[in-house]
Amino acid sequence: QHRAMAAAADTTKTRPKTSPKSIKFLFGGLAGMGATVFVQPLDLVKNRMQLSGQGSKAREYKTSFHAVASILRNEGIGGIYTGLSAGLLRQATYTTTRLGIYTVLFERMSKADGTPPNFFMKALIGMTAGATGAFIGTPAEVALIRMTADGRLPPDQRRGYTNVFNALIRITREEGVTTLWRGCIPTMARAVVVNAAQLASYSQSKQALLDSGYFRDDILCHFCASMISGLVTTAASMPVDIDVLVKVIRKEGFFSLWKGFTPYYARLGPHTVLTFVFLEQMNKFYKIYFLDS
Q1: Predominant location of this chain (predicted)?
Q2: Cα-based torsion angle of the residue sequence 200, 204, 205, 206 in order, rounded to the nearest 10 degrees
Q3: Is 60 exceeded by the pLDDT of residue 2?
Q4: How confident is the model at residue 114 (pLDDT cuts 50, 70, 90)?
Q5: pLDDT tier, 258 (very low <50, low <70, confident <90, very high otherwise)
Q6: What mean pLDDT is predicted for residues 148-168?
């Protein structure tokens, strides 16, 4: 009887069924790409706002609304979706990798009874996932930045990339393959901060909301947790989103490190929300139709 009870106790500690690793990576990429379709115009404005005023006192765009109006006036309605193909490829590489690695490691570090890892371990897992994803996604990031910045250059200096693949091929042919990884180290450093903040704060916020007893594991919980995550991530990552910190501070002041905070959060907040909501819904339906059936 004692052995039977021990055996029964062991079965209760078995890990719950989970999706294959390939599905975790696939869903991560699809969630990020779906979110990008909605927030690409905000990403464009964020990039233009940060480039505005670099190296001079005058700022090209006074506010994010001024930036949108200027882009629409000078480049047309299609101008606000400049770089969409690069944004999608970035998600297909960077987000597929980071969310896939985070989910796999998160489950591996969780206890047999489903108890998640502590916040420090979540942050460490997020840092690992972010650095790896950033390295793989840097070529698409380079193409994205060039494509979104192209419209503010004088007409004779514009590169005129037709899509992300055209950009990658031309950069490789005209400037060498190593150019695709230009700025890789600061990109990885930023990704470490972003993912430690975003992934860990989302997991921790979701856990806290569920533990409060006022939330169930549904879209409302995912929305609230991801909004908290977006705010934490914006505050933590904005200072490392500009390449030359000392130069910027000296010329434009300390608070210029948070220049473009409104469009940055307006972009990062919805992107974080949509990514996690899409991801959670895909996992939910996969569990219903494939794991529980």
Answers
A1: membrane
A2: 110
A3: no
A4: confident
A5: low
A6: 87
Secondary-structure class of domain 18-291 per CATH = mainly alpha
Distance CA 69, CA 88 (A): 24
Using CA atoms in the order 93, 24, 210, 194, what is the torsion angle rounded to 10 degrees? -20
- pTM of the predicted model over 0.85: no
Q: Are 215 and 224 in contact (CB under 8 A)?
A: yes
Chain mean pLDDT for the chain: 85
Q: What average pLDDT does the segment 27-44 reach?
A: 91
The DSSP result for the chain, as a single string, is -HHHHHHHHHHHTSPPP---HHHHHHHHHHHHHHHHHHHHHHHHHHHHHHHTTTTSS--S-SSHHHHHHHHHHHH-GGGGGTTHHHHHHHIIIIIHHHHHHHHHHHHHHS-TT-PPPPHHHHHHHHHHHHHHHHHHHHHHHHHHHHHHHGGGS-GGG-----SHHHHHHHHHHHH-GGGGGTTHHHHHHHHHHHHHHHHHHHHHHHHHHHHHTS--SSHHHHHHHHHHHHHHHHHHHGGGSSS-HHHHHHHH-GGGGGTTHHHHHHHHHHHHHHHHHHHHHHHHHHIIIII--
Task: Please choose, from the candidates 106, 105, 82, 86, the residue with its C-alpha nearest in 3D space to the C-alpha of residue 94.
Answer: 86
- Token pair 């480049």: residue: 75
The CA-based diameter of the chain, rounded to the nearest angstrom, is: 85
Residues 70-81 have pLDDT tens digits of 888 888 888 888
- How many other C-beta atoms can be found within 10 angstroms of the C-beta atom of residue 228? 18
Structure tokens that stand for 219 in this block: 């879209």
125-139: b (≥16 Cβ within 10 Å) or e: bbbbbbbbbbbebbb
By CB neighbour count within 10 A (0-12 exposed, 13-18 middle, 19+ buried), where does 148 fall? Answer: buried
- Match 């921790």 to its residue by tokens: 204
